[in-house]
Amino acid sequence: MEDRTIMEITVLDVKTFVTWLLFLVISLAVPWAVIGDDVTPYGNLFGLIVLVDVCLVFGWFLSIIPIPKLPPIPPLVGMLIAGFALANIPVINVGYYIRSDWSSALRTIALAVILVKAGLDLDSSALNKMKGTCIRLTIIPCIVEAATCGWVCYLLLDFPWAWGFLLGFVLGAVTPAVIVPCVLSLQNKGFGVKKGIPSLVIAASSFDDVLAISGFSVLLGIAFADVPLAGDSVKVVKALADSGVLLNATTAIPDVVTTGMAVTTELAELATTTFAELTTTAVVNATTLADVAVTTAAAEGMSEAGLLALKIFRGPMEMVGGIIISIILGTILWCLPDSNQKGAVKARTILVISIGIFATFATRIWQVPGAGPLIAIVTPFVAGMRWGETKAQISKNVGYVWWIFEPILFGLIGAEITIDTFDSETIGEI
Questions:
Q1: Nearest CA among 380, 429, 418 for reference residue 402
Q2: Residue 256 pLDDT > 50, yes or no?
Q3: Could you count the other beta carbons within 10 Å of the beta carbon of residue 413?
Q4: What are phi and psi of 149, to 5 degrees?
């Protein structure tokens, strides 16, 4: 590789770039041939396909740019920039039309995949030697960052305490999707392997994320402790609708419909009523399981101290429950599928990825979000302790899946930042 000339490297790079363009054309042509008109410009599927392809190409392009005395730029930087551009630059802003529910689901799947990859690449012997360091590296930075942010928000921005610490856990959470691939690349080159540093960083970053989610969930319940209950919320929204506060929002619905057809007064009233009902439903659905538990406890006469204790210990209970479930699932995967079974490696790859994705989504539905990422990383870690040599191939297979979801994750994150939603006056005041 070192003996190749500049010209040969340039030709290779050009061929690689043309290959990416060919993938771009095929990735659009095949869905169009199968689905038809749904894959049209400025549509949901069209935006997703173009976003992924452009992020792959731009991420690769930035990674090959030589910078003297500095390591190569990570591809994820190019993916973030490409996602931001595709959502904000006029004419090419295809990312703007990607449905938010699709974006959220795909980003969650990508998070589950990288956590599974992290769990498979953990070294149990190295972690056993540095378990105390791992615990300190998990807890201390996250708590200190959240506490510092809470104090600063309270003193400088006049935030309530709960909201300040809530923002602190958001800012204090690390990103396994960024840290894990970088650390694994260093591990593959042999850096820090003897001292177990890659496993330490991967484990601490993943558990730090779980701690941040748990802390956020606890503080979210505290912050909304004084929010009106479902029945009161209905009354509030209906009162706002009757008083005309929702007039500006509701009149948009009849106006849009009137543009295409003659709409009667009854239809306009129906649209207004429907909007109020949808708003009421959104308020009711915003109540988390913690709020429900607190409401039930209050109805049964539990004291305020008991309610506060329930909120505080909810996060640790999620973590303990997630670890117990992970140990059970990992133990089952020791035996199923059998190592002598044909295609056992492929079956195990599919199982660990499926369990990680299911756990991440299901725990959100069950309103215990802190347990999901923990199950996604601990289950493959426990299972890999008895998988022997096949563990490396399974990790490699999961890496192929991550190669697909990496541009999806960072491209969609970049596309989430839309300039037209910024309030310049608010930003100026801050």
A1: 380
A2: no
A3: 19
A4: -65, -40
